[in-house]
Design goal:
- The structure is a single chain.
- With 310 residues, the protein is an alpha+beta fold.
- Among the domains are: 147 residues, Cupredoxins -  blue copper proteins (Immunoglobulin-like, Sandwich), CATH 2.60.40; 64 residues.
- It has 4 helices and 13 strands.
- The strands form 2 sheets. The protein has an 8-stranded mixed sheet with strand order 2-3-4-10-9-12-13-7, with no helix packed on it. Strands 1-11-8-5-6 form a 5-stranded mixed sheet, with no helix packed on it.
- The longest helix is centred in the C-terminal third of the chain and has 33 residues.
Length: 310
């Protein structure tokens, strides 16, 4: 009886645990999304509130160059969160979509929904700076929430990078591309869209072992006599290093000493006696500047000639 009682209690505990887990999972799935719709306008398309919501590059009316009118009105809803990375191994965060296509001169409204309890961004780069001060359109929210912003796409056919600029979020999967018109190519490693720039390679090497992720530097086999040549080369290179005493400072000192001293003595005898202190300093300063210019030119020529000899 006692054993049966313990078994019954354990079954009750397991049932309660499963129930609590299911309730927690349901709560996580049905997280409350708070909407940021009372933002302060700071000018130049920059809006923000005190709860972590921000829009940069808002533009609802100003037409880009080459656009005589709005070609079409479009809206997209982009969700961001950890769960959108599950279909892409090696990623941690993701967008619900990673590629968007629009006509040039489209007025686009983006509804950005963050489903994580961290900060996420939907940031579009490369926009013309004569319209978008920072060259970007940027939506940002902290925690489960929603924010909406509008921009007018340029006339040119171009592919724009979209990503989250929070540290490591892009590297962990939060990136996409927005294609205007025919686009201008694609970006690598966009989840579900393009291949990685450097594909992973898990195939075994010729010896059956795992291949290194980065190939080691090639080392040529040493041939007979190579060690002697290397030693000779090292000895031959020694004078160059030992000649490092011939520096620019030494040349400057020699020139100033050889040419400056006699001239300074002559000037002192002939002119300094009738000049004020400030006049003397001004004249000496000009003379030294002229000498330094000559010296630097001489050093440059010497270094150039040494480089040719090597």
């Amino acid at each position: 009886m006692k054993t049966k009682s313990i078994t019954t209690r354990l079954s009750y505990l397991c049932s309660a645990g499963l129930f609590a887990f299911s309730v927690g999972a349901a709560a996580a799935e049905n997280v409350e999304i708070r909407e940021h719709n009372r933002l302060m306008d700071h000018g130049d398309g920059h809006l923000m509130d005190m709860d972590g919501g921000m829009i940069m590059g808002q533009n609802k009316d100003k037409l880009p160059g080459g656009c005589s009118r709005i070609s079409e009105e479009a809206e997209i809803t982009v969700r961001a969160g950890h769960k959108y990375a599950k279909d892409f191994p090696g990623t941690m965060y993701g967008f619900s979509e990673h590629e968007w296509h629009f006509k040039p001169c489209t007025r686009l409204t983006v509804h950005f929904i963050n489903e994580d309890n961290v900060r996420h961004q939907w940031m579009m780069h490369g926009l013309p700076k004569y319209m978008y001060d920072k060259g970007m359109f940027h939506l940002e929210i902290t925690g489960p929430s929603k924010i909406s912003g509008t921009l007018i796409l340029p006339k040119e056919d171009r592919t724009y990078l979209v990503h989250c600029d929070i540290a490591q979020h892009m590297e962990k999967g939060m990136k996409g591309e927005l294609i205007v018109g025919k686009g201008s190519g694609t970006f690598p490693t966009i989840p579900g869209v393009t291949d990685a720039a450097i594909p992973d390679n898990y195939a075994p090497g010729p010896d059956g072992k795992a291949q290194p992720s980065v190939a080691p530097p090639t080392v040529d086999a040493e041939k007979p006599g190579d060690s002697t040549k290397k030693q000779t080369g090292q000895v031959a290179a020694a004078p160059a290093s030992s000649g490092s005493w011939f520096s620019g400072s030494l040349v400057l000192g020699i020139v100033l000493g050889v040419f400056g001293t006699p001239i300074a003595l002559r000037l002192r005898r002939e002119r300094f006696s009738d000049m004020t202190g400030s006049d003397v300093l001004a004249m000496v300063g000009g003379f030294l500047g002229h000498v330094i210019d000559i010296t630097l030119g001489l050093i440059s020529r010497l270094m150039h000639s040494r480089g040719k000899k090597r």
